[in-house]
Design a protein that fits this description.
Layout (H helix, E strand, L loop, with lengths): L3 H13 L2 H7 L4 H15 L4 E4 L2 E4 L1 H28 L7 E6 L1 H6 L1 H12 L4 E6 L5 H7 L4 E5 L7 E10 L1 E5 L9 E3 L7 E5 L4 H12 L5 E6 L2 H11 L2 E4 L12 E7 L3 E9 L6 H25 L3
Parallel strand pairs: 3-4, 3-5, 8-12, 9-10, 9-11
Antiparallel strand pairs: 1-2, 5-13, 6-13, 7-11, 7-12
Helix pairs in contact: 1-2, 1-3, 1-4, 2-3, 6-10
Length: 309
Amino acid sequence: MPKIASLKLFAEVMQAGTIAKVAEQMHLTPSAASRKLSALERDLELKLFRRERQRLVPTEAAETLLPEAMRALSVLDELPRISDAIRDGATKEQLVRILSFPRLAEQILPTAIQHYYRETRSETRINISVEARHNIKRWAASRLFDIALTTVPVFHPGVRGEPIIDFPLCVILPRDHALSGEREVPVQSLAREPLSLIESGAILRQRIARVFDSAGLTPDVRQESGKVDVSIRVGLAAGSLSINDGIFPKALLGQKYVLRRLKTQQSVPVGFVVPRDSEVEGAAAFIKDAIRQEVLAYRNDLDKVLDAD
């Protein structure tokens, strides 16, 4: 197993792009830092850098390893907070670990956790980790959570999914657009429209692709981004329409834009993922219920937006 200091050095060098600056920050000489990286390569049996004229050029293996190293280090970063809670007398039941992908974490969790504390007057410690949805299988393998809020299903032997409710695919378009009067926008009407979408490979993008594929169409994607909120903002600025699942700040709509359902059977199921061999009990169960209620309330508010005007 690699030493933690060497793994941290690797992550810092990858982000800084230079070994000299990182070595100084970690109170190492450049030569000592270089030896540590060489030792890490031997431990992992991977070639992480090419040495070119006193420069370290990351290999494809290094690029692949970096997010995993960051995840491992982030887990270690949580240990001091967990140990503080234990010293303060917290029991296992009072340490609740929640995982979620960014948009659900931003739109659902703050209000749900507020309601939990307000209703229970609890002093439970809650740790929230935010990860990309496509990393869900890695979440499942790590078992470093009590509750995960994400899109379902998730196929992994170590976890089980619990659906809450489906979210519809939606289209954002200008209020004066010819399609804005439609309650449901047919995909055929979008065939020649410029679109701004979440990037290829994302779960949501795959669902959108199925809608176009089933109609024998190819979307005209002019812009794409790794985040739905960014793809929406860019689309609004560039004059493109945006397809999403309704989980985004509705303030982006303003007075100039409307949200309409996409006419399709495709939807986005949202629910919980929990460890298969353990029950969600105690404080975690109360928090889980608060999250469920907030998901349902958010979905209900989305229907009001879709049915407005």
